[in-house]
C-alpha cells in the first residue's frame, strides 16, 4: 500500500512470456487534494507489529499524510495509557521505561478540519534477551 500526494499519475503494464511480448498499455489517474482526513488511514512503519525488542529507546515512524498539520501519539503499557505526545514530524523517539512487557502505540493525523482514526501496533519489551544476527550451519 502506498500513500500518494495529490497530482496526476500514470502507470503502464505489458505481458511477457517465453515467446511473446505485448506493447505497453498506459493508464492515467489523478488524486485530488482534500483537507478531510477522516477517510484516510495512517500507515505505521516502525517498529513492526508484534515485534520483540530489548531496546528501551525506540524510534516510532509512520508515513506522513498530505494536509496533516500534526500527529498525536499515544503509548500504552499493559493496556494503560502512559504517554500522549504531539509532533509535526513523521517519527518520534520515545523511552519505554515503564518496564518490560506489552506496549501499544497509536498515532493519528490531524489538521484544522479533521483527523484520522488512530492506527495502532503492538510490541513487547524484554531487556534480558539478546539478539544475534548471522547464519548457523550445522554439518554432520
| Strand neighbour order, sheet with most strands | 4-10-9-6-7
Supply the number of helical segments: 0
**What fraction, in percent, of the residue positions are helical?**
under 10%
- SS class: mainly beta
The backbone outline, from C-alpha atoms, is flat
Number of strands: 10
The fraction of residues in strands falls at: over 45%
Q: Major sheet: size, sense and barrel closure?
A: 5 strands, mixed
- CA distance, first residue to last residue: 45 Å
Order of helices and strands: EEEEEEEEEE
Radius of gyration: 21 Å
Identify low-pLDDT runs: none
Can you offer a commentary on this structure?
The N and C termini lie far apart (45 Å). The model has no long low-confidence stretch (mean pLDDT 91). A hairpin with a 2-residue loop joins strand 6 and strand 7. The protein has 140 residues and is an all-beta fold. It has strands at residues 7-13, 25-31, 44-46, 51-53, 57-62, 70-77, 80-87, 91-95, 101-110, 119-125. The chain is built from no helices and ten strands. Helix content is 0%, strand content 46%. It has a five-stranded mixed β-sheet with strand order 4-10-9-6-7, with no helix packed on it. A three-stranded antiparallel β-sheet has the order 3-5-8, with no helix packed on it. Strands 1-2 form a two-stranded antiparallel ribbon. The radius of gyration is 21 Å and the shape is flat.
Amino acid at each position: 500500500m502506498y500513500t500518494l500526494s495529490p497530482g496526476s499519475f500514470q502507470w503502464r503494464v505489458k505481458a511477457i512470456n517465453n515467446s511473446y511480448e505485448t506493447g505497453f498499455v498506459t493508464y492515467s489517474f489523478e488524486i485530488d487534494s482534500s483537507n478531510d482526513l477522516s477517510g484516510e488511514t495512517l500507515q505505521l512503519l516502525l517498529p513492526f507489529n508484534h515485534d520483540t525488542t530489548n531496546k528501551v529507546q525506540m524510534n516510532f515512524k509512520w508515513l506522513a499524510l498530505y494536509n496533516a498539520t500534526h500527529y498525536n501519539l499515544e503509548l500504552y503499557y499493559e493496556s494503560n495509557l502512559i504517554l500522549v505526545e504531539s509532533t509535526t514530524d513523521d517519527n518520534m523517539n520515545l523511552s519505554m521505561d515503564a518496564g518490560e512487557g506489552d506496549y501499544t502505540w497509536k498515532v493519528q493525523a490531524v489538521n484544522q478540519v479533521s483527523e484520522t482514526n488512530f492506527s495502532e501496533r503492538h510490541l513487547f519489551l524484554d531487556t534480558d534477551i539478546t539478539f544475534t544476527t548471522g547464519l548457523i550451519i550445522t554439518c554432520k
